């Protein structure tokens, strides 16, 4: 059963009790991410995510690590373009300790100047590591170009210049502004009692200031962009993307199924055509990146320079098929059952249930019943996919980013169409 309570200061607490579970996953979510930063302080949300584990008035960073290890639990965090999450997973009997630990780092981190400088070096190494990992770098480059000129295009990590320029005062000011009660959601799933958790959180989080921290940006404008980035690599890495769907799009289930058919598994069209039939690439897949007001459908693969043109042609052809050919009934049904099965299997994990509660609250303001989601998949037809494909697969919104030893391209920009 899912229950929701709003604390006196505006923080939302949402739980899903799983009485047969022996664990609880709990997360403190802040509905602000890299898209809510200023360009000169890009990367600050991710930097703060690191710094909250570096010590509080009551605990050193070693104390924090030892405490979660001593109960066999997990403590971690992640930053995205639209939210940050700090989470723990522990045996249910240790939930009060996990709440104390999570709220301590969330509210009482000291931001010691020496620790900031040490962690700054860690973040800069993380940026360098991504630069040295082309199959990661290409996705960051793609989003920078796809959302060019819009906050969604800013890197989650920031860059060396912006991270180096972040002062202690700027970091604390950002946290004070953005970590406000109306933007904070606490979700928990597992063997948890809603009333007990709410009482704990009311005590620990009562000092959080009410109100919102972020200012909303206008939705991005889609434009066509072809970007060829020279880098001395053995492969050419290719990211090709078009308009996708925002989180609440009425045809999002059509998009999920279309993506599954395109490149979402080993039986997908791209995997079969690019890897199994042609042997052009080891890794090839597609994914949907959906945000509050926009989205993208992205295809990725890496191939040797001599095969890059053929790879690109297959990508364009397979995407374009959705605009011209109805998906065969057998393929549609297989993708539908694949996604429904993946969802049901994911619900066996309290981590996934906890995350699902938060994302539904952020994007829909309410839990989405499992039956409603299943009905959404069941209502998808070949005609509805064809309709969506002709709406979003727009060549005027196509972005292609290629990374590697490209030299003189073996194609014309005017040939890049789906």
From TrEMBL:
Family to which this protein belongs: Belongs to the peptidase M16 family.
Domain of life, per lineage: Bacteria
Organism in which the protein naturally occurs: Geomonas anaerohicana
Protein's name according to its UniProt entry: Insulinase family protein
Alphabetical list of InterPro entries matching this protein: Metalloenz_LuxS/M16, MPP/UQCRC_Complex, Pept_M16_N, Pept_M16_Zn_BS, Peptidase_M16_C
Cofactor(s) essential for the protein: Zn(2+)
Residues annotated as domain Peptidase M16 C-terminal: 166-339
Domain (Peptidase M16 N-terminal) ranges: 12-159
């Amino acid at each position: 059963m899912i229950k929701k309570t709003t604390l006196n200061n505006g923080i939302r607490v949402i739980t899903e009790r799983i009485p047969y579970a022996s664990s609880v996953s709990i997360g403190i979510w802040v509905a602000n991410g890299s898209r809510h930063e200023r360009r000169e302080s890009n990367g600050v949300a991710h930097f703060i995510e690191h710094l909250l584990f570096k010590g509080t008035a009551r605990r050193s960073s070693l104390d924090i690590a030892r405490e979660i290890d001593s109960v066999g639990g997990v403590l971690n965090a992640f930053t995205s373009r639209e939210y940050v999450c700090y989470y723990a997973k522990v045996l249910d009997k240790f939930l009060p300790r996990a709440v104390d630990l999570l709220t301590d780092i969330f509210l009482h981190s000291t931001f010691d100047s020496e620790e900031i400088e040490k962690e700054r070096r860690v973040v800069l190494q993380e940026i360098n590591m991504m630069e040295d990992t082309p199959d990661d770098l290409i996705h960051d480059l793609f989003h920078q170009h796809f959302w060019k000129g819009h906050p969604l295009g800013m890197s989650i990590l920031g860059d060396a210049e912006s991270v180096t320029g972040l002062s202690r005062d700027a970091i604390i000011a950002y946290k004070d502004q953005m970590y406000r009660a109306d933007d904070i959601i606490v979700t928990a799933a597992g063997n948890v009692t809603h009333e007990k958790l709410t009482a704990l959180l009311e005590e620990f989080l009562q000092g959080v200031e009410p109100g919102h921290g972020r200012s909303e940006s206008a939705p991005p404008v889609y434009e066509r962009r072809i970007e060829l980035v020279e880098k001395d690599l053995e492969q050419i890495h290719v990211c090709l993307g078009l308009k996708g769907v925002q989180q609440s799009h009425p045809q999002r289930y059509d998009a999920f199924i279309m993506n599954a058919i395109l490149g979402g598994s080993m039986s997908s069209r791209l995997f079969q055509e690019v890897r199994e039939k042609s042997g052009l690439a080891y890794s090839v897949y597609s994914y949907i990146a959906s945000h509050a007001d926009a989205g993208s459908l992205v295809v990725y693969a890496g191939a040797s320079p001599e095969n890059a043109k053929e790879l690109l042609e297959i990508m364009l052809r397979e995407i374009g098929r959705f605009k011209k050919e109805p998906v065969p009934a057998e393929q549609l049904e297989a993708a539908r059952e694949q996604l429904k099965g993946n969802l049901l299997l994911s619900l066996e994990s309290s981590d996934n249930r906890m995350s699902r509660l938060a994302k539904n609250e952020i994007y829909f303001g309410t839990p989405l019943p499992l039956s409603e989601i299943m009905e959404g998949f069941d209502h998808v037809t070949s005609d509805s996919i064809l309709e969506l494909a002709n709406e979003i697969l727009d060549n005027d919104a196509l972005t292609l980013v290629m990374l590697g030893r490209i030299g003189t391209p073996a194609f014309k920009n005017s040939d890049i169409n789906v």
